Q: What sequence folds into this?
């Protein structure tokens, strides 16, 4: 469902009574939950959580008066997160710095997967959370993120039924004599 106050880039979904999710592309980037407080019947208040269940308190610590206000807080936190690009991966890919050594790889609004650095190991996971090379890990973060990108490309090749050889017309060069210019007479 679209919530006009958030922008066209976000979608919202009712997960359960009193719980809304904010989606950016193919990922939930935050939630709004009905606050558990002793309130008069019929009065609602809301709390917001961002990526990785980070609490997004309102200034003063008071809950939000509406679900829309809580979701706008989620949107603003998403927009304020730390991201960067890497020349190694290509300028169309961007990396989201998350908590606890996690870095997500994105292509536009499509989450491709993530890298996790633990004390000994760099691990990579596709967008569904499946480990890529789970036994040996990767030597560094770059290798792990390149594996995430490669897994995404394999996935696209499979679902789009990409052929290994391009059609002949891609090999032909555009020659001027094939398309003579019109002349006025």
A:
């Amino acid at each position: 469902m679209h919530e006009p106050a958030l922008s066209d880039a976000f979608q919202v979904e009712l997960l359960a009574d009193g719980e809304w999710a904010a989606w950016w592309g193919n990922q939930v980037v935050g939630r709004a939950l009905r606050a558990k407080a002793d309130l008069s019947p019929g009065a609602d208040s809301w709390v917001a959580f961002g990526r990785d269940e980070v609490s997004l308190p309102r200034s003063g610590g008071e809950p939000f008066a509406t679900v829309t206000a809580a979701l706008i807080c989620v949107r603003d936190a998403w927009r304020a997160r730390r991201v960067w690009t890497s020349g190694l991966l290509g300028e169309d890919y961007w990396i989201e710095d998350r908590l606890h050594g996690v870095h997500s790889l994105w292509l536009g609004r499509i989450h491709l997967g993530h890298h996790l650095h633990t004390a000994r190991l760099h691990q990579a996971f596709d967008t569904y959370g499946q480990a890529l090379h789970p036994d040996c890990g990767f030597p560094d973060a770059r290798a792990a993120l390149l594996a995430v990108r490669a897994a995404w490309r394999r996935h696209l090749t499979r679902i789009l039924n990409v052929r290994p050889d391009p059609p002949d017309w891609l090999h032909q060069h555009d020659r001027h004599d094939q398309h003579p210019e019109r002349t006025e007479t």
